[in-house]
Design a protein that fits this description.
The chain contains 6 helices and no strands. With 193 residues, the chain is mainly alpha-helical. Helix 1 crosses helix 3 and helix 3 crosses helix 4. This is Transcription factor Adf-1.
């Protein structure tokens, strides 16, 4: 069993202890502070960053929804056999009473887009490895900024995206200019020796 699979199993087991995180009818489900406290406790027990764990939980939930959709449609493998049950389906069964399976009223184009997104989600799921090393600090920082930004209305989300992009472009340009100056200085020194 891989470490990431073990972590996912532990994460599922931890989330199960906090119905406020998955039961949309729970009295405190809409209270961000209550939910954040739950995630902090889970984070301490698993030794991983809250934002990474939240993202992983979303991927797990989306994968469960996809697995249920496949079994409901009777999707089969290329060999014509029924698709195997998703590996965490039984472990996450506690979520089922609280999930809404969306009915399909979409066009084929929308279905393809959703399938692409689901494939991307499954790929992310396979790549996820919780880590607390300093190398991940930038990822963790932006994951945290992303979560905070998602809580804002779209108007402010767009402002933040624009400002972050402006800063990134300005700093990249500054870096390119500095790199060019350093390269020119090296070239001049080599020419004088």
């Amino acid at each position: 069993m891989t470490a990431s699979r073990e972590y996912r199993e532990k994460l599922i087991d931890e989330v199960k202890k906090y119905p406020v995180l998955y039961d949309t009818r729970h009295e405190n489900h809409r209270d961000i502070d209550v939910r954040d406290r739950c995630w902090t406790e889970i984070s301490k027990r698993l030794g991983a960053n809250c934002e990474i764990l939240k993202r992983e939980w979303k991927i797990l939930r989306d994968s469960l929804r996809q697995a249920l959709k496949k079994s409901r449609k009777g999707t089969r493998t290329k060999a014509g056999l029924p698709c195997k049950k998703w590996r965490f389906q039984n472990r996450m069964s506690f979520v089922l009473p609280h999930m809404m399976i969306r009915e399909d009223n979409r066009t084929a184009i929308e279905d393809n887009k959703i399938d692409d997104m689901e494939m991307q989600s499954e790929a992310e799921q396979e790549l996820w490895e919780p880590s607390t090393s300093d190398n991940d600090s930038l990822d963790l920082f932006f994951a945290s900024v992303c979560q905070s930004t998602k809580r804002l209305p779209t108007k402010y989300q767009n402002q933040i995206k624009k400002q972050v992009l402006d800063i990134l472009l300005r700093v990249e340009e500054e870096h390119d200019n500095e790199s060019s100056l350093i390269q020119e200085t090296k070239t001049e020194r080599l020419g004088h020796t």
